[in-house]
Amino acid sequence: MIALILNSGLGHRMGVLTSEHPKCMTEISSKDTILSRQLKLLAAAGIDEVIMTTGYFDDVLVNYCKSLELPLKYTFVNNPLYSQTNYIYSIYCAREYIKDEDIIFMHGDLVFEASVLDDILSFENSCMKVSSTLPIPKKDFKAVVRNGRVQKVGVEFFTDVMEAQALYKLKKNDWNLWLDKICDFCESDRRNCYAEVALNEITDDCVIYAFDVENRLCMEIDIPEDLAVVKTKLAEVENRTVYMCFSTDMIHSGHIAIIKKAAKLGKLTIGVLSDEAVASFKRYPLLPFEERKTLVENINGVNAVIEQKQLSYAENLRLLKPEYIVHGDDWREGFQKPIRDEVTEVLAEYGGKLVEYPYSKDAKYTDLEKLSRAQLGMPDVRRGRLRKLLGMKGFVNAIEAHSGITGLIAEKTTVLKDGKTYQFDAMWVSSLCDSTAKGKPDIEIVDMTSRFRTIDDIMEVTTKPIIFDGDTGGLTEHFVYTVKSLERMGVSMVIIEDKTGLKKNSLFGTEVEQTQDTIENFCEKIKSGKRAQKTKEFMICARIESLILERGMEGALERAFAFSGAGADAIMIHSRKKDPSEIFEFVEKFRAQDKITPIVVVPTSYNSVTEEEFKKRGVNVVIYANHLTRSGFPAMQNVAKSILTHHRSKEADDMCMPIKDIITLIPEE
Ligand code: SPV
Ligand code: MG
């Protein structure tokens, strides 16, 4: 791509301002002339060759260009008849340098902002700058635009027109057609018209699209009043504010490209999403907020970085009121759409504008994201994430998983509500559900090898932290091996309950014979487990069965303090009452003495309490311990019954997921 700039004219209407040099050398700011700005922008946009037609003050112009020392190769073409011909003839003079080229073509008195040039350059087809928002000029250029295409250009048209400027990007084929016509004109002595008169004869074949820059700066300077307007607009452009939000922890060339574009619109502030917000919609960030912030701060073009605490932009937009929001166009669909809708609403409140660029679908970037996801699934990265989440959010929820498919549900289920995205933070590998899936009772009959196999199935297809239901932990001598194995696999926490002998599910309560372990024995088990683990990240949680076994609050609290004293990283308090008051009482009394040790609850029976309320009361982990099993089981049973009842499966079809959905449920790697 080469640039063609027409500078043969003088610009008589500028008066004394052009008495010593051509119009393009008029100063528009303390650091730039019209021309120096054009050339700098061209060079910054990656253009390295400029063909410039000259006329008046030819040598002043040539020397001036050289003095700018820009990385541009110039070819100056003098129009010897500059005082008697129009620019159609200047183009004709330059024909041998510009034929068979893709070109960016502009008049030398045009001032435009960087983003205008960039957008025109990246437009797929030949195009001309128009504006749908500027008033239609009486005497200046207008483009007749139909179906997005430029049909005619000139001052004399008034129907279906838009304000237009002589800033074109022309693909070789279209440009050759126009250039041939220009040559025809000049060779038949029609040298005093606009080059567009030649264009108007061939617009059926020469396809030029109207590129609408709306009210971004792109205007020519004809008279001193235009100069004053340009100066004011340039100052506005420089002070304009732009906002983008970033969640990424790996910066690639796609991000740099969009930042570069955004920075050309004005002063760019980047909102870096908090760790919590990233984890809620995407995946746990590999780099924490502070590191991601530093990364972004050091990118060229970034003026300021602030935290964006939520996926919703509303808070930061109302605070900063940026003129522009920049985003990839991928958020027009899918889970980000409501966020985009809210952005457009907030922008409308103060007249801001949304600018969307095509989202880069480069396979390289999707591969990188896959790689990061895979990293999150690695044992060393996954293991510590529960502790990190607790540190970051103070509160974590987990749902039961007992197979690869339930693991995927726990991993991928997302709900968007009130501009926020909700996901589960972790998975609970329940002994009840693992046993049930194998058709066995929950009495520690499914051995550890089999339980580990379940963990492995889940781990293979997910990345979220795993909390393992370790039942009683078995004999202390066995438990230390379990701890080592779980830790090595990348499990984040094991919960063991203070019972011995034949363990039965807690939800039987006192209906079955259950033996609670002594405080001493259980403390010894915890200590041995803590000694056995190799990393600081793995957590052992002590589960207290006193309320289940109706042994009273005091006993429960005594155990809780003893177990945390023995090194337990968290305390789980269990209850099977519908009324949550004994849980609340325990939490309040425990928190009165211990503000730090995480408290875990399993609200299967007292299920009316919201996570918000648990959090307020000082609970840190809520486990939905059996809900996928309990919901899946009746659904399967109903279908089985329906088939038996009707001797065919037609009636059960509506109860089943469509085949197409089931085969696409699991994405191929
Ligand atoms: C499990 O899910 O296996 C549990 C929790 O241990 S509960 O069933 O409530 O005892
Ligand atoms: Mg259990």
The whole-angstrom Rg is 35 Å
Structural class: alpha/beta
CATH architectural label of the largest domain:
Alpha-Beta Barrel
CATH class of the largest domain: Alpha Beta
Task: Please characterize this protein's 3D structure.
The chain has 669 residues and is α/β, with parallel strands linked by helices. It folds into 4 domains: 2-235, Spore Coat Polysaccharide Biosynthesis Protein SpsA, Chain A, CATH 3.90.550.10; 240-364, Rossmann fold, CATH 3.40.50.620; 378-625, TIM Barrel (Alpha-Beta Barrel), CATH 3.20.20; 631-665, no CATH class. It is 41% helix and 20% strand. Strands 1, 2, 3, 4, 6, 7, 8, 9 and 10 form a 9-stranded mixed β-sheet that branches. An 8-stranded parallel barrel has the order 17-20-21-22-25-26-27-28, surrounded by 9 helices. It has a 5-stranded parallel β-sheet with strand order 14-13-12-15-16. A hairpin with a 2-residue loop joins strand 7 and strand 8. The longest helix has 20 residues, at 627-646. The protein is elongated and about 110 Å long. It starts with a strand and ends with a helix. The mean pLDDT is 93. Sulfopyruvate (SPV) is lined by residues 430-432, 442, 469, 505-507, 602, 604, 625-626.
